[in-house]
Specification:
The chain has twelve helices and seven strands. It is α+β, with helices and mostly antiparallel strands and 384 residues long. The chain has two domains: 2-164, Globin-like (Orthogonal Bundle), CATH 1.10.490; 236-380, Heat Shock Protein 90, CATH 3.30.565.
C-alpha cells in the first residue's frame, strides 16, 4: 500500500526531494516557511492516499469514524471539518508554498518542478525498495500532485499579479507627482518673468528651462513605455547617430550645467543605424539622463559612437563611483533603484534594454569600481 510506504520512508523521500529542489533552485534563497512547505504537503498526501485506499471504500465508516482514524494515526491536523482530507486542503497548502516561492524570487518553473521532484523521489525510492505501485494508487498520487501544482501555480500567479498592480499604481502616482512639481515650477517661473520681477536670463529662467526639460523627459519616457506595451512593431528608418545624440544633448546640457558637469560627445562621422528611431532615441535618452543623474557634481559624462566590425557601438560613460555586486545583479530590473538618489521611477534602464533588444541589439554595463560605469549599446550597422 502506497500510503504505508510513504509513511515508513518519509525521511528518506523528503531528503531526496529536498536535494532535487535545491539543485533546481540553483542557489536561490530559502526560508523556514519554504522548508516546512513540502513536509506539510507530504503528510497531507499520505492522509489522502490512506483515505482513498482504506477509509473511502468502507461505506459503514461514518465521518466521525474517519476523523477518529486520522487522529489515531497521529495526524490530527489532517482530519478536516468534513471528516476526511480533500483536494481543497492540498491546493490551499500548495498555494502557501507557491506564494512563498514568489516572495523569495523563484520562477514559475521552480513551482512546477518542486512537486515533480517529489514524484521522482517517490518513484526512485520505491524502485530501490522494490515496491510495485498499483496503477490505481499511482493515478491517485499523480492526481494529488496535479492538484498541488495547480494550487501553487494559481497562488503564485495571483500574488505576482497583485505585486505587479501595486508597482503600476506606485509608478503612476510618482509620475503624476513629478509632472505636478515640474508644472508648478514652470508656472511660478513664467509668472515671475511675466510680471517683470526677474529676467529670463537669470536663475529663474534656468529653473524654467530645467523644469521644461524634466517635463519632456517624463512625457517621452511614459510614451515610450506605452508604445513598448501596446505597439512593439518596429518602424525602421535610417539616421545618423550624431543627429540622434545631438537632439538629446539639447536638454542634457541644461542638466549638466546645473550640476557643473561636463558632457563630452564624440561620434564617428557618417556613423548610421537602421532602426526604430523613436525607440533608439528613448534608449539613449534614458542612458544619458541616468549618467547625468548619478554622476558626481563636477564630474564628466562621455558619449562615444564608433563602428566595430559590422556593429555600431554607442557608449555612455559616467562617474557614479561604480556599482556594488547587488546593484549589478538588479541593474535592468523594473523599479530597481540602486543608488541613494531615488528621484526617478526605476524604469529607465528597463525601457532602454527593451528598446535595444527589440531593435536586434544588445546592451551591457561595464563596471569601473571606484570610478563609474560604461553602458555599451551594440546595434547592427546598415547593410550596404
Amino acid at each position: 500500500m502506497l500510503y504505508k510506504f510513504l509513511l515508513e520512508n518519509a525521511e528518506e523521500i523528503l531528503a531526496l526531494t529536498k536535494d532535487k529542489t535545491r539543485d533546481l533552485a540553483e542557489g536561490a534563497p530559502s526560508s523556514e516557511q519554504l522548508e516546512k512547505g513540502l513536509p506539510i504537503f507530504y503528510k497531507q498526501l499520505i492522509a489522502v492516499l490512506k483515505y482513498d485506499h482504506v477509509e473511502k471504500p468502507n461505506a459503514t465508516l461514518d465521518k466521525r469514524g474517519m476523523a477518529q482514524a486520522a487522529r489515531d494515526a497521529d495526524e490530527p491536523a489532517l482530519a478536516l471539518a468534513a471528516g476526511s482530507p480533500n483536494e481543497a486542503e492540498l491546493a490551499r497548502s500548495a498555494g502557501e508554498h507557491g506564494s512563498e516561492l514568489l516572495r523569495l524570487g523563484y520562477t514559475l518553473s521552480h513551482v512546477v518542478h518542486a512537486y515533480g521532484a517529489m514524484c521522482q523521489s517517490i518513484n526512485e525510492i520505491a524502485a530501490t525498495k522494490k515496491l510495485q505501485i498499483a496503477p490505481e494508487e499511482f493515478r491517485n498520487l499523480n492526481q494529488c500532485l496535479d492538484v498541488a501544482i495547480a494550487g501553487a501555480v494559481t497562488e503564485f500567479q495571483s500574488q505576482r499579479d497583485i505585486k505587479k498592480s501595486k508597482h503600476e499604481i506606485e509608478k503612476l502616482g510618482f509620475l503624476a507627482h513629478e509632472l505636478r512639481n515640474s508644472l508648478s515650477a514652470v508656472s511660478m517661473a513664467f509668472m515671475m518673468i511675466k510680471e517683470g520681477a526677474v529676467t529670463a536670463t537669470g536663475s529663474t529662467g534656468q529653473l524654467l528651462e530645467r523644469s521644461i526639460a524634466r517635463l519632456n523627459e517624463l512625457i517621452s519616457r511614459s510614451l515610450t513605455e506605452v508604445r513598448l506595451r501596446s505597439d512593439p512593431k518596429l518602424h525602421i528608418e535610417s539616421d545618423y547617430v550624431q543627429q540622434l545624440v545631438d537632439q538629446i544633448a539639447l536638454t542634457a546640457k541644461i542638466d549638466a550645467s546645473s550640476r557643473n558637469q561636463a558632457l563630452t560627445i564624440k561620434i564617428e562621422p557618417n556613423l548610421k543605424i537602421e532602426a526604430d528611431q523613436q525607440l533608439i532615441h528613448s534608449a539613449l535618452f534614458n542612458l544619458i539622463q541616468n549618467a547625468l543623474k548619478y554622476t558626481r557634481k563636477g564630474g564628466e559624462i562621455k558619449v562615444r559612437g564608433k563602428l566595430v566590425d559590422d556593429t555600431v557601438v554607442i557608449e555612455v560613460e559616467d562617474e557614479c563611483g561604480g556599482l556594488s555586486p547587488e546593484a549589478e545583479n538588479g541593474l535592468f530590473k523594473k523599479f530597481e533603484q540602486n543608488h541613494e538618489n531615488r528621484s526617478g521611477m526605476g524604469i529607465g534602464l528597463t525601457i532602454a534594454q527593451e528598446a535595444i533588444i527589440l531593435n536586434h541589439g544588445t546592451i551591457e554595463c561595464q563596471n569601473l569600481p571606484g570610478k563609474g560605469c560604461i553602458f555599451r549599446v551594440s546595434l547592427p550597422k546598415i547593410k550596404e
